[in-house]
């Protein structure tokens, strides 16, 4: 059984990949990005939660055999990952940490860019 953090990381990665093109377009176009960041965070954490639903069902008492059926692959390949990656606690924690770090660094870069553009507009940096 793979650790829930690994499944959560898979869901977060899918959410990040889905939101990345829109976010990059907004940043390059120098348009407002707050809603785009919010959408990215909601999508990545929401899909992370969706990816652990079979694990939550197992902890709620649903039989393991039911949670490992082929149709549970709808939850971001839950049974497949469970079969291929036994354990996975360190891998899952590292992946979640990297995704959290990516979000944090992206926000810092955006704040820095906004600060630089504000300085250019006001001429305060001279």
Summarize the structure.
By secondary structure, this protein is an all-alpha fold.
Question: Can you give the mean pLDDT?
Answer: 86
Overall tally of structural domains: 1
Order of helices and strands: HHHHHH
Task: Please state the CA-atom Rg, rounded to the nearest Å.
Answer: 19 Å
Task: Report helical residue fraction.
Answer: over 70%
- Classification by helices and strands: mainly alpha
Shape: elongated
Give the strand content. under 5%
Q: How many alpha or pi helices?
A: 6
- Uncertain parts: none
Description:
It is built from 6 helices and no strands. It is elongated. The protein is mostly helical. The mean pLDDT is 86. It has one domain.
What would the keywords be for this entry?
126 residues, mainly alpha, 6 helices, 0% strand
List the helices and strands and how they pair.
Elements lengths: L3 H25 L5 H18 L1 H7 L4 H4 L10 H7 L4 H34 L4
Helix pairs in contact: 1-2, 1-6
